[in-house]
Amino acid sequence: MTLLALLDYTAVLVFALTGALVASRAQLDIVGFAFLASLTGLGGGTLRDLLLDRTPIWITDPAYLAITCGAAVLVFFTAHLLESRYQAIVWLDAAALAVAVPAGAGIALSLGQPAPIILVMGITTGCAGGLMRDVVANEVPLVLKQGELYVTCALAGSAALAIAHAAGLTPSIAALTCALATLALRAGSIAFGWRLPVYKPRPPKV
C-alpha cells in the first residue's frame, strides 16, 4: 500500500467517525449514521477526485464504503459511552484534517499539478467532507466558526508540503511536515483559542 493510499484510508475512517458522532447527537437511525459517516468520510476526497478528473476513490475501491459503514455501526453502539460527544467530534475532526490535507495535497503533487492547485486540493480534501456533514446535520460548520483556525490550518499544511517538496525532502517527510503543521495549528485553535481577526462593522464616516 502506498503512503497516499494509507493517508486516504486513515482520513476516511476518522472523518467517518465524526460523521457518525454527529448522527448520534441528532439521534438518527442506523441508515442515517451510515449516510453521515459516508458523506463526511468520502465527501472531500470525492470532490478532489472530480476536480482532478479522477474516478472517485470509493468507486475504484469499494473498501472505502465498508470503512465508513463500519465506522457508523461502531459509533451507533458505542457513542453513549463518551462523556462529551461534541469534544470527541472536534478532536477527531482535527486528527482527520491532519491526515486528509497531506493526502489531498500529495495526490495533486503526484499528478504534477502546480503549487496553487496543490494548495486547493489539500484544502478541499480536508474541509469539504466536514462542511457537508455540518450543513446536512443543520449545525454551524466548524469550517466557518467565527475566527477559528480551520481552513487556515489546511492552507498552511498544504503550503508546508509544497515547500518541503521544493526543498528536496522525501514524500514521506513532506507529508509528515504537512500533517504536523496542520495539526499544530488546529490543536492550538481548539486548546488555546487561537483565532484570526474577524471583520467588525464600523459606523460610516459622515
TrEMBL record:
Residues 6-79, 91-165 form the Glycine transporter domain. InterPro entries: Gly_transporter. It holds the Pfam family Gly_transporter. It comes from the Bacteria. Its main location: membrane. The chain crosses the membrane at residues 6-23, 30-51, 63-82, 89-111, 117-137, 149-167, 173-194. Keywords: Cell membrane, Membrane, Transmembrane, Transmembrane helix. It is a multi-pass membrane protein. It is found in: Cell membrane. Belongs to the UPF0126 family. This is Trimeric intracellular cation channel family protein. The lineage of its organism: Bacteria, Pseudomonadati, Pseudomonadota, Alphaproteobacteria, Rhodobacterales.
